[in-house]
Design goal:
It is a single chain. This protein is of the alpha+beta class and 181 residues long. 18% of the residues lie in helices and 29% in strands. The strands form two sheets. Strands 1-2-3-6-4-5 form a six-stranded antiparallel beta sheet, with helices on one face. The protein has a two-stranded antiparallel ribbon with strand order 7-8.
Amino acid sequence: MNRARIQDYIDQREEQRADLYHYERKDSTNFLLNGHQYELVKEYRDGFNGEELAKRFSSILSKYDYIVGDWGYDQLRLKGFYATDNPLYNVEQGVESIEDYLFEDCNFGCAYFIIHNESERIPRQHRHRKRRSKGPVIKERRRKVKQPDPKHRHHQHAKRVKAGNHQQKFVIHQRNQGAKK
């Protein structure tokens, strides 16, 4: 693919995404993004731009309590973090690690903002963190043998065969048409 085709594809995707998310400012710190309430907690170097946030926003981010947006090379990058009381909380994505993220993963001195999700939407599979019993993961079903009832098997006979070390097994053979036993 050449650069022109890639840029055309990027422009096409941006046009498609333009109508997906709608930004509406309520006051200096509160705003709605697709009807969902957010609060601007911190803004550094005028890093917050609601229209650009709406362009880059994805519905997967609605599960996070805090979202950090940082600017690098004129592109907005978004990353989500959990509050300590969220059932999805872990240390790497906890609210305490926002400062580490800003120092280690963002460009030095870049503009950034932190927004708080007023009502995060936890995905269904994580709402009730119940652990399953440690039973078998794969359930096996016995397959029914497609043979007639033993009473109706006139064309077969079973023979006992020694398998070694006092073990026995049964082998079913087809009867000859002329032999009866």
